[in-house]
Amino acid sequence: MFKINNLKIIKEYSVYRHPKLYNINSTTTTTTILHKNDQQQIINKKGYTTTTTTNKNKIQNNLFQKVLLTFGSAIVAFHNPARGDMVATLGEVTGGCAIKKIKENMKSDPIGREILLTRPRILESTYPANLHLLPETTFGGAYYKWMKGHGFSPDERTQVRMIEDDEDAYVMQRYREVHDFWHVLSGIDISVHGEIAVKWLEMIQTGLPSTALSSFVGPLSVSWQDKKELINDMIPWAIRCGRNCKPLMNIKYEDYWETDLNEFRKILNFEPYISSNNNNSNKNE
Amino acid sequence: MIPSLRRLTTGTYGFVSRRFFTTATPKDNNTTNEQPQTHFGFQTVNKNDKESMVKEVFDNVSSSYDLMNDVMSMGIHRLWKDELISTLNPTPGSHLLDVAGGTGDISFRFLEKIKQSPYYLPAIGANPPKNTSLPSSATVFDINQSMLDQGKKRGILNGYNETTDPSIDWVQGNSENLPFKDETFNCYTVSFGIRNCTNVDQVLKEAHRVLKKGGRFLCLEFSQIPNPALRYMYDTYSFNVIPVMGQLVVGDRDSYQYLVESIRKFPDQETFADMMRDAGFQQVTYKNLSFGICAIHSGWKL
């Protein structure tokens, strides 16, 4: 275990706790109203998941439920890609081993270790105060423009509930939250085949089975034009970029808000995607 | 804490729920000891908060309530509700108060049954015949406005609006304090709603108050299965499949986890019959449906 002697580091970042449950500045947690977010669903002696009242928001599933969730969420997500919570569920239920591997990679890197200790979250409340003022050539400005342009908010991300270990749950949550950063870095806009290209990148970087499933099954539902673009341009790009760039889970993106976007890409050795018909890139002019 | 809870879950499943109820409070929580506690699924909550928590559950499920009923019971809930209405066997001139009626399943069936009666002859047109039947009505009463709105939408689709057929009324309120005068209804049904009420005794007393003499109280509710093998299969299905189906179909696991747990916390058939007798109902009987998955309790105000 690592001890941090300089407590200032901890106070600068928001620690990973459920926003409604914990007051970071106080050490006691008093709850008189037991809201559903205060419950934990544990597997009782008979093997059924039942609810008790502890201050965690977690669900334990037994094997049957995990299998049912895997197949069910895959089918629902395939039929209705707008169900983001189904994609998230698939990732959580199938991601056990891959998350451990990512954690090992993070622990062997000094910045990864720092991320695991401080557990920074990417939420509206942890944005820097000047994010909206940053020029669009910077990483932070480009990110802000991209999020606002699409009307996204980082608070909309599904919380990780079905992974039992807290550290694993944090790694999964971090993976979800930096997904938007990877969109900005690669310059890929929101479209079905764009998401599939980013999923290929994620598969090479993280090795999560749900990304592999989306990468191989997702292209079945896109048009021939998009399939052509995927096979000829986007997937080779994703493989090149994923293999050449630095491990993206070990980067503390919060330190680079004000860095110029192309500079940041050079630091990471990240090759942005430039489509041949120039429809998909938001690189700066 | 989990090992200590595991020690408590010994014994047959019927006793597990009571142990969770008495000892599941967290140790560092001093402030809840002063207020009266009740169960919310397997959690223990303050009595004052249960109502708003139930309201939140039903706000979340209202838009897909009928779909999820079909998914969870594989369509059998329709047969249960048909059985309830044929037990009631209404005749034209009956006035129904359908408490926790939500989307109006029971009220629609009630009015359809009356229309199929051989004595039904509505007074419509300019010169109605002399032997028309008495008018009947159904009042759907629910604490949750979003469920009532869903029901109103269904009513309009089935032709129940102010101009064509005003026989259904949609009223919002708390069943522990009904806004009706004494002795106004001759049928009172509560279908899959009474286990969500905080004070079941109060609901039964109010039911006794608003019923006319000779009126009938019917309650269709999930109950305990007597046969242990079937109970095991039912528990396995309930706890393993239903919350996961809730998560897959509508994205809401917690509401369906509450649902299956609240079924276990409701008193069994005999206990509920005793509660009805305490409230003043007479000739209290019950019959099990689907081997005890549901039970219809019937009592008369005499």
Explain this structure to me?
Chain B: Pathway: Cofactor biosynthesis; ubiquinone biosynthesis. Chain B: Keywords: Membrane, Methyltransferase, Mitochondrion, Mitochondrion inner membrane, S-adenosyl-L-methionine, Transferase, Ubiquinone biosynthesis. Chain B: One of its GO terms (biological process) is methylation. Chain B: It catalyses: a 2-methoxy-6-(all-trans-polyprenyl)benzene-1,4-diol + S-adenosyl-L-methionine = a 5-methoxy-2-methyl-3-(all-trans-polyprenyl)benzene-1,4-diol + S-adenosyl-L-homocysteine + H(+). Chain B: Its main location: mitochondrion. Chain A: It is found in: Mitochondrion inner membrane. The complex is a heterodimer of chains A (about 280) and B (about 300). Chain A is mostly helical and about 280 residues long. Helices cover about 50% and strands about 5% of the residues of chain A. Chain A has a three-stranded mixed β-sheet, with no helix packed on it. In chain A, a hairpin with a 5-residue loop joins strand 1 and strand 2. In chain A, helix 6 crosses helix 7. The C terminus of chain A is likely disordered. With about 300 residues, chain B is an alpha/beta fold. Chain B has one domain: 3-Layer(aba) Sandwich (Rossmann fold), CATH 3.40.50. In chain B, about 45% of the residues lie in helices and about 20% in strands. In chain B, helix 5 packs across helix 6. The longest helix of chain B is centred in the last third of the chain and has 22 residues. The radius of gyration of chain B is 20 Å and the shape is globular. Chain B starts with a helix and ends with a strand. About 10% of the residues of chain B have low confidence. Chains A and B meet through strand 1, strand 2, helix 2 and helix 3 of A and helix 1, helix 2, strand 2, helix 3 and helix 9 of B.
